[in-house]
C-alpha cells in the first residue's frame, strides 16, 4: 500500500506532507501562546496537527517500504538507517503534537485560565521540537540521496565527507 504507484516510490511524494504541515503547525502553536488568539486557532490547529501526524505516518511507512525494496550496503545503508531513526522520532513527535493540539483545543474551549496557558506552553514546545526534528530528518534523508547521486555522477569525491558536512 505504501510502496509504489505507477513505478514511482511514494516516499518522495508523501514526505511533502510533514515537511509542510509540521512547520506550519509549529508556527500556529507559537501563535496559540497569545491568549486572545486561542479561541480562533484551537480547532484549525488541532486538525492541522492530526493531518501532520497522519502524513508523517504515511511517510514513515512508505520509507520503510522503499528501504525494503532497495538493496543497499555500506555508508549509504548506514545513512538511510540514521534517516529512518530520525523519521521514527518525527512520527512520535508528530503524534505528541497532535494529541497536545487536541487537548489544547478542548481546554481552550472550556477555560481561559492557567490550564489553558500551561497546555499552550507545552504545545509550543512540542511544535518547535517537531519542527526541529522535521529539519533533522529531512537533512539526513536528502544527504543520503544526494551524496550518493553526487558520488555516482563524479561531483563528490568522498561519500563519507559529503555525509558529514
Low-confidence stretches: none
Q: Calculate the mean pLDDT score and round it.
A: 92
Q: Strand fraction band?
A: under 5%
Query: How does the major sheet shape up?
Result: 2 strands, antiparallel
Along the chain, the helix and strand elements come as EEHHHHHH
Structural class: mainly alpha
| Largest beta sheet: strand ordering | 1-2
Proportion in helices: over 70%
Described by the principal axes of the CA atoms, the overall outline is elongated
How many helices does DSSP assign?
6
Total strand segments: 2
Q: Any idea what the radius of gyration is? A: 18 Å
Assembly state of the chains shown: single chain
Q: Give the termini separation.
A: 35 Å
Supply database-style keywords.
165 residues; mainly alpha; two-stranded antiparallel ribbon; 83% helix; elongated
Amino acid at each position: 500500500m505504501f510502496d509504489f504507484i505507477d513505478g514511482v516510490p511514494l516516499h518522495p511524494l508523501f514526505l511533502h506532507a510533514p515537511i509542510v504541515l509540521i512547520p506550519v503547525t509549529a508556527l500556529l502553536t507559537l501563535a496559540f501562546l497569545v491568549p486572545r488568539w486561542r479561541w480562533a486557532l484551537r480547532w484549525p490547529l488541532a486538525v492541522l496537527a492530526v493531518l501532520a501526524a497522519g502524513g508523517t505516518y504515511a511517510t514513515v511507512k512508505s520509507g520503510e517500504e522503499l528501504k525494503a525494496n532497495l538493496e543497499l550496503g555500506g555508508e549509504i545503508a548506514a545513512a538511510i538507517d540514521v534517516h529512518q531513526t530520525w523519521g521514527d522520532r518525527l512520527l512520535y513527535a508528530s503524534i505528541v503534537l497532535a494529541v497536545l493540539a487536541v487537548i489544547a483545543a478542548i481546554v481552550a474551549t472550556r477555560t481561559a485560565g492557567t490550564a489553558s496557558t500551561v497546555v499552550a506552553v507545552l504545545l509550543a514546545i512540542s511544535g518547535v521540537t517537531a519542527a526541529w526534528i522535521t529539519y533533522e530528518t529531512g537533512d539526513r534523508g536528502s544527504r543520503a540521496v544526494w551524496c550518493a547521486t553526487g558520488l555516482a555522477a563524479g561531483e563528490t569525491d568522498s561519500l563519507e565527507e559529503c555525509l558529514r558536512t
